[in-house]
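We treat protein structure as text, and this decision shapes the records that our systems exchange. The tokens are whole numbers drawn from a learned vocabulary of local backbone shapes. Below, we set out a record of this kind in full and without editing:
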Amino acid sequence: MPRFARLVAAVLVLSLGSLALSSTAAADDVSAAQRRAAGEFLTAAAAGDAQALAFALHPAELERLRSSVLQQLRDEDARGMSTLRARLFGEAQPLADIERLTSINFFRALARRLQWQARPYEELSGLVAVRDGNLVHVLVRGRQPRGLGKTEVVEVVSLLAYGKEWKAALPLELAAQLEDVIAGRRPVDNFGTSAGAGSGSAASAAAGSGAAASGSGAAGAPPRTERNTPQILALLDTAEKSLVDGRCDTYYREHLSPELRRTLGARTVDTLISACTRSMGNRELLVAALRIVRRTAPVYEAAGNRAVYDVSAQGLPYDRFVLERIDGRWYIGE
């Protein structure tokens, strides 16, 4: 091993704390498979793609994370509480739905609460691999793409054996951030649009939940963000009461905007009413959306006749909820 690589290995071992005293710690050259695994992880992190990042992580790490968090959620639910569930998945997400998530989708949902930064690299060269029990901490030097700077950056990626290949372990920084969110030591943040389920179109969002997703704000003067007006609160109250009383027909035919109902078509509206009537879970999701909107300040557009709400990271299957005023009356939809 070159002298420089041995020096770097010694520094890395010291920085890992307990490894400095461990007789099992050993520095080796980075194999091609380890370099590939480190590159896969760093590429996914740089792209901000939570799904790609999940595929770069070791499946056992994903399942360990899922099992640990689910147990905490179940313990909380047994006590009749939902604080942790709201912090991690949004209060509108039922525990039963969370339990059905695969380990990949479970991580994607959690990733909306985490943040990390990584640079894109055109080429990686391995420096040294330090063994730490069943982990191998790989030190690589990354060369940035042309135009992004000449400085070569050193990165550390922890790996686990995956057959004859390697996969990344859950980074300790992300694990620490997750602990902070669970403990309420920091507000939840959105990882980004690629990590979420996506807001979809107005029609598809309405078909899934009775609400509509909106596009970008209108051009011209900047939109105004204000509290809900008494008229909007009245709409939300009456719409919620319709759902609580099981009157799905009233919810869809009286509280959705006439334009949205025309866009969906009579047959689709009938299907939505039928699904709402049959499913308590469907009605609970709609009620949760209305309650979230009630306490959220909207962005007013179209001369104050359109109210757009950011409901991302709330456990809803869409990121925006839209109300519109027609002939002086507020409706759900667009």
User: Anything to note?
Assistant: The chain has two domains: 3-175, 202-332. DSSP finds 14 helices and ten strands in the chain. Residues 1-24, 189-223 have pLDDT under 50 and may be disordered.
